[in-house]
Amino acid sequence: MKQAKTLGELKAAGYRSKSIKEELRANLIQKLRRKEKVFEGIIGFDETVLPDVERAILSRHNILLLGLRGQAKTRIARLLVHLLDEYMPIVEGSELNDDPLHPISRFAKDRIEQCSDSTPIEWVHRSERYVEKLATPDVSVADLIGDVDPIKAATLKLSYADERVIHFGLVPRAHRSIFVINELPDLQARIQVSLFNMLQEGDIQIRGFKLRLPLDIEFVFTANPEDYTNRGSIITPLKDRIESQILTHYPKTIEIAMQITRQEAQLAPEQRQTVQVPDVLQILLEMIPFEARASELVDDKSGVSARLSISGYENLVSTAERRMLINGEKSTVARVIDFSGVVQAITGKVELVYEGEQEGPQTVALSLVNAAIKKMFLNHFQNPDKLKKGRERDPYGTVRAWFSGGNKLELLNDASDKDYRKALDGVAGLRKLVEETLNLKGDEAYIYMELALHGLAEFNVINKEMLESSFSFRDLLANMLNDDITFDEDDYN
Q1: 186, 291: one domain
Q2: Is there a single domain that holds both residue 100 and residue 198?
Q3: Which label site among 262, 280, 313, 451 has the fewest CB atoms less than 10 Å from its CB?
Q4: Which of 231, 247, 263 is the last residue of a domain?
């Protein structure tokens, strides 16, 4: 049928017209029966969002995807194009994708009347049947619906009363296609009014032209609940005509979040080959957005996008890679200290409440990292605050004693692997703590040795100070005694 070049050939091939909603439904049914994956690349929605989307398609509904930022709403909408037929016939030259058997535009009707079965047919790939528009306050009715084109009128020498002087907007041009409007509440109310009549009746009016265009469109809208109060709202008549409203959500587990990050992170091939990120650090990274969503300093209505951990992972790898390049090494392993490079990926991804603004984005980002470190520490080591004095051996006793003896450890951000390991090995009892607690030996132990230090600092067993190019660990009491104190000799005379 793809080879049909004229209307006559199309009819002879037995082509039958079907609406886009019927097309989506038929192709979805085939995929479900074959047990094929319908939404490739969407992780964590198999039991929640995606079944709702499939039900909406089977019901031939228009869809509203409602959820906070970074919840894959637009990606789901874009993947719907794979449920369309690979190719679709249109009247050649038609700007409204006219169905050769059921034309709706003046151009297509006139051409079929003139050429009859010789009317040339053009085939459109499904990738060209997707239209996406970001809703902004400056979007006009002309942008979406259309307007009278005075240049066309002058060129064709037509009167403004002639339908052919109309320049159609995005919506009519999306006939027999998927039309997506992102951030729907940002559209002005009067623009939304122009949409809701089209959803049900198919009537549009352009500069006094009353046209009956039975547009065949699958509408998909996305919206953020925050938009309803901060920027606008979806008018009731329009919302009433969107048959299925589907709620999206953030990853519910660390494991799902890790899968998303690994899939979405854009790493160079050489980064994947030369920089290793241990699982413990990947989990630590994913704990940060979970901490942010529960933080009193972060606006929970705004949400914390999954892009935080994606950008954070890219920065974590790049921080390790930069250190490797500076030291002339061929490969390296990411460290806890490399999370200092993740902070820049956090500050722009969280919206702070008033108290958070007072603290400052940098401080809040660091506090989120430290909160995640504290939880990760407890996943592997005993809580120092819950050790019963005299009843059990203190696993941190040797490490405490080493720092209490006036020793300190300085971990440079850009230290070579050799210097990094040497510095950690210099802390008495640290390796033994990891080996006995986690049964780890060799190079794998170093990450947990460093994690133990950061964790002990979070429980105020030792002091941690972040400097411009390093982290300094020392005894908590010694740090207070070493603060700059000046004495006046006259006080002793």
Answers
A1: no
A2: yes
A3: 262
A4: 247
Orientation of helix 279-294 relative to helix 445-458, angle to 10°: 30
Name the token pair of 239: 């919302």
Q: pTM of the entire structure?
A: 0.86
> Which pLDDT does position 492 carry in this prediction?
37
Number of structural domains the chain divides into: 3
Rg of the chain in Å (alpha carbons): 31
User: Do 231 and 335 sit in the same domain of this protein?
Assistant: no
Q: H-type helices in 34-188, by residue range?
A: 49-58, 73-79, 106-115, 141-144, 150-156, 170-173
Which residue type occupies 480?
M
- The residue written with tokens 């660390």 in the block is 254
DSSP 20: H
24 domain residue, yes or no: yes
Beta strand ranges found along 350-448 (DSSP E): 408-412
> Quick one: pLDDT at residue 116?
93
> Within 10 A of 290 (CB to CB), how many other CB atoms are there?
20
- The residue range of the domain holding 456 is 388-493
Token code pair at residue 469: 């190019």
- With respect to residue 1, please indicate whether it lies within any of the assigned structural domains: no
φ/ψ (deg, to 5) at 91: -70, 125
The token pair that represents 382 in the structure block: 């005993």
Query: Which residues are bridge partners to 182 per DSSP?
Result: 134
Task: Tell whether 423 and 492 lie within a shared domain.
Answer: yes
Q: What is the DSSP string of 201-230?
A: T-EEEETTEEEE----EEEEEEE-TTHHHH
Please check whether residues 364 and 269 belong to one and the same domain. Answer: yes
Low-confidence ranges of the chain (pLDDT < 70): 1-2, 148-154, 156-165, 200-211, 226-232, 388-392, 478-493
Q: Which two tokens stand for residue 256?
A: 């799902």
Which of the listed residues 380, 407, 438 is the one where a domain comes to its end?
380
Residue 254's H or E segment, with its range, is helix 254-264
Residue 179, H or E segment: strand 177-182
Query: Is residue 340 a part of any domain in this protein?
Result: yes
The residues, ordered by sequence, that sit 6+ positions from 31 with a Cβ below 8 Å of its Cβ are: 37, 38, 83
Q: Which of 60, 103, 18 is nearest to 199 (CA)?
A: 60
Same domain, 239 and 117: yes
What DSSP assignment string belongs to 283-304?
HHHHHHHHHHHH-TTB-TTT--
